[in-house]
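so ive been stuck on this for like two days lol. basically i have the seq below and the ligand is magnesium ion, smiles is in there too. i just want the complex predicted, nothing fancy, no docking runs or whatever. if the output looks off dont worry ill sanity check it later, just need somthing to start from for the group meeting slides
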Amino acid sequence: MTALLAPSTLARPRLPRWAPVVVAVAALAVAGLISLLFGWSWIALLVVAGLLYVFALPLWSRVLEGPRAATDRLMTHLVWGSFVVVCVPLLWLLILVVQKGAPVINGHFLTTSMRGVIGSMPGGILHALQGTIVVTLAASIIAVPIGLMTAIYLIEYGRGGRLARVITFLVDVMTGIPSIVAGLFALALLVMFFGPAFRAGIGGAIALALLMIPTVVRSAEEMLRLVPSDLREASYALGVPKWRTIVKVVLPTAIGGIVTGIVLAISRVIGETAPLLVTAGYNDSMNGNLFSGRMTTLPVYIFNQYKTPGATPLGAHAADPPGYARAWGAALVLIVIVMILNIIARIIGKIFAPRY
Amino acid sequence: MAKSIDITDLDIYYGDFKAVEGVNMTIKAKAVTAFIGPSGCGKSTFLRSLNRMHEVIPGARVEGKVTVDGQSLYDSAIDPVEVRRRIGMVFQRPNPFPTMSIYENVLAGNRLNAKRMPKATADTIVEKSLRGANLWNEVKDRLGKPGMGLSGGQQQRLCIARAIAVEPEVLLMDEPCSALDPISTAAIEDLIHELKSDYTIVIVTHNMQQAARVSDDTGFFNLKAAGQPGHLVEFNPTKTMFTTPDNPDTEAYISGRFG
Amino acid sequence: MSLTASPEQTPTGPPESDSGSPARRSARLGDRIFAGAALGAGLLIMVVLAGVFIFLLIQGVPGLSVDPSTYGQGFDNFWSYVAPLLFGTIFISILALIVAVPFALAVALFISHYAPRRLATPVAYVIDLLAAVPSVVYGLWGGRALAQALKPVINWLGDYLNWIPLFKGPASPNGQTALTAALVLGVMILPIITAISREVFAQTPRLNEEAAIGLGATRWEVIRLAVLPYAKSGVIAGIMLGLGRALGETMAVTMVYSSSPKFTLNIIGDTSPQTIAANIANNYSEATPDKQHVLIAAGLVLFAFTFAVNFIARWAIGRGERNLAR
Ligand SMILES: Nc1ncnc2c1ncn2[C@@H]1O[C@H](COP(=O)(O)OP(=O)(O)OP(=O)(O)O)[C@@H](O)[C@H]1O
Ligand SMILES: [Mg+2]
C-alpha cells in the first residue's frame, strides 16, 4: 500500500503571499483602461474590476496549484463577493433615504397634515403619524391578548395534545398569509356588515392584528417554554392555584422575552401598506376615529405621495415633484420608527435576559 | 510508504492558552505508538497537531517543529490539505457521512482527487479498504445502504476503511474504541495489529491494557497542575513503560495510584 | 363546551385536594376562567382562520360570475382574467428567487463558515436589518433610485440580448420594469432565505466536518461533503418560505413598474405581466361592488396558492428535522 500516485513531497506549489494584491492591482488597472476607452462610469469600473479579480486569481491558482485549490479559491471569492454585493442595496437604500429625507423633515413637516395642501405648498405627515399610532395600537390591543393567551394555552394547558398541534399548525399557516389577503379579509368583513363603500381605521387594525398574532404567539411560546418547571412546581407546592402561578410566577419570569417579541411584531406591521390601502384608505386630514372615515397611515402616505407626486414647480431647480420629497421624508420617519422599535426590543431583551 | 515523525520542542496554543509544552519524540514508522495520560493533558491536541487538524480551530497555533520524512510540516511551502490526506485520522466517535452509502463513504476521500474514476477502480478500492478494515464480509451485500445504518463498531471500522482508502502514510486514532463495546474493541485492536505492517499508527487511549496490547512505544502525558500546559513525561518502548518506567509518576499513573 | 383543559389533565398541574373551603372554591373558579380564556384564545385563532377563508369565499364567489364587462376588455370569464395574473405572480416570484437564492446561500455560508467570527455576528444583524425595512420603502427605492440606475443596463439588454425572450424589448425608457421589480423582490426575500439557511448550515455536526477535513478536503470540499447534503431540506424550506413571501408581496411590485394582466415573458418592456397582489392594489379604489368581488376572488386564489407553497415549506422543514433526528 504505497502511495504510488502521489508525489512524495508534502510541499505543493502555492500562490505567493502577495498574489492577491498583484491581481487586485492588475484587475483595477485593466478595468480602468477599458473604462477610459469606452467612457464608462466609475460604478462600471468597480464592477468589472471586481469580476476580474474574482475570476483571475483562481485562474492563476488553477495553473499553479491545481483544480481543487482553484475551486476552493473561487468559492471563497464568490462567497465574499456575494456578501459585498448584498451590502450594496442596503447601504444604498439607507443612505438615499437619509439624504433625500433629512432635508424635508422640519417642525412644520411633523406638525401639519395635508389638509388643503396643493402643489408644492408645504404639507406634513401629522395625520399619517396619528393614523399609524391609532391603527397600530388598536391592532396590538386585539392581537396581544389573543396571542399571549394562545401561547399560554399551548404551553401550560394544551401541551402536545391534538388541539395544541392543530393550533400550532394554524399559527404556521397564519405566518404565511400575504398581507394583502389579510387586508382583503378585513375588507370582506367590513363590507358584509357596513356596505361596500365602508372604509375605516378599524379594518386596518383587524388586518394588522391578523398579521401580528402569529409572531406574538411564536415568541411568547418560546419564552414560556424557557421557564423552568421547578419554578411552577415550587409554586404549586405552596398551594397556589395554577392560574395564579401562571400570572404571578411564569409570566413575570418570561416577561422580557414576551415584550421583546411584541415590540418586534409591532415593528413588523407598522410598515405594512397593502392591507391598510384596501381597508383604511387615504385621507388628507386628521382623523382620530377608528370607526368612521378614512384614516391615513405613514406607509399609505408614502405610497400616495409616490403615486401622485404633483407637478414640478415652475422655475424650480429641483427636478423632483413635491410628492417625492414628502415620500422620502416620510420614509425616513418610518425607518427611524422601525429602527427605534428594534433597538427597544433589543434593549428589553438584554435587560430581562433569562438568568437561570 | 509509512513514514516516521520527528517532533522537536513543540508548544501548542489555543489563542493565548498554552495547552501543550516542550514535546520531543520520534514516532517510528510501521509501528504503533500509544499516548496515555489523564483527561485534559493535551493528548488530542498533540495528536491533531501531527496532521495540522489543530489549526482549523480559530486562534489555534503551534510553535516548534514536526518533521515527516525530512519535511517540516509547518513550513510555509507545505499545503495543509495535502498533509491531512497523507496523514489520516480516525476520531473518537464514528462519523460516517450521513447522506452517503457505505460505498460512497469509503470513496469520499478518493473522490476529492479524482471526481470520475472507472467503476472497476472504484470497486477495487472499496473492496480492498473494507477488507483492510475487516468489514468486507459484514457489508459486502449492502454497499448501497446508508453508512449510518451500521452498528457503532461497524461504523468505526467504516471510518477506518475511509481513512485507509486514500492510502495515507500515517494513521492517527483518537480514542477509536471509547464509544464501542468490548467485541468491537477487540475487532479494532486486531485490525490495528494488521495495519501495522503498512502504516505508521498513533493512537490515543484511556485504556492501559489496550495500550499495552497494541502498541510498541508509549508516551505518557501529564499536567503539572490544573491550568498548566500538558507535557510529555516519559516516552519509551511499551514493555519498558509497563514494567520498569523511568519516571515515578508514570508508574503511579499506570498502576492506578494517581489522582 | 366543557373546559377540557382542566388542571388534572396536565402533568404539571397543582396537586388536587378536595377541601371544600371557600378559598379553594374561588381558586378553582379562577382556574376555570383562566383556562377557559386560554383555550378560548386558541380556539379563536381557529375561528379567525376559518373566518378568513369563509369571508373571502362569501365575498369572492360572486366575483366568479359577474357581468363579463367587469373583468375588463378581452376577458370573458373569471379564469381567463385570473390566469395571466397567476402567471405574472409566479413568473415575477421565480425571477426574484433566481436573483435571491445564490446570494442568500452565499451570505449564509459567509456567516456560518467563511467570515471571521468577529464579523459574523454583525453581518447576521445587518441582514436582519434588511428584513426590517418596510416594503413601501423598498418600493420607493426601487421605483425611483434603482429604476434610474438600471436604465443603461436595460437599454443594453434591449439592444444586444433582445434575441432572448426575456429581454425582447423595446426597452422601457424609464427603467421601471418587471426586471427592476424582480431585483427589489429578490433583495426583500433574501433575509428570510439567509436566516433559515445559516441556521441549518451552523447545525452541521462538527464531527462530519472534521471527518472531511481529516480526509484532506479543502474548505469548499468540506462544505460540499459535510454541510450541503446535511442542510438540503432546510435550505429548500427556506427557499419555499422566500417564495411564499414573494408571491404575496404587493407594494414593491405595484410601485416599481406599471403592468397589465397579460401573458408575456418580456421583462424590460413598458407593460409587463401583472401580479395578483398588484392587480388588487391597483384597482381596489375605483372598484364597483362587482369588481370588488372579483378582486376578493383573485385574493382567494393568491391565498390558496401561497398556502400550498408554505405548506410544502413546513413539510420540508418537518421532514428535515425528522431526518436529522435519526
Ligand atoms: N477548541 C479548544 N479551544 C480552547 N481550548 C481547548 C480546545 N480544545 C481543548 N482545549 C484545552 O486544551 C487542553 C487539552 O485538551 P485535549 O482535548 O487535548 O485533552 P485530552 O488529553 O485529549 O483529554 P481527553 O482525554 O479528555 O480527551 C485542555 O485544557 C482543554 O481545555
Ligand atoms: Mg481527547
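The pocket of magnesium ion (ligand 2) is lined by residues B 43-44, 174 (CB under 6 Å). The first strand of chain C starts at residue 259 and ends at 260.
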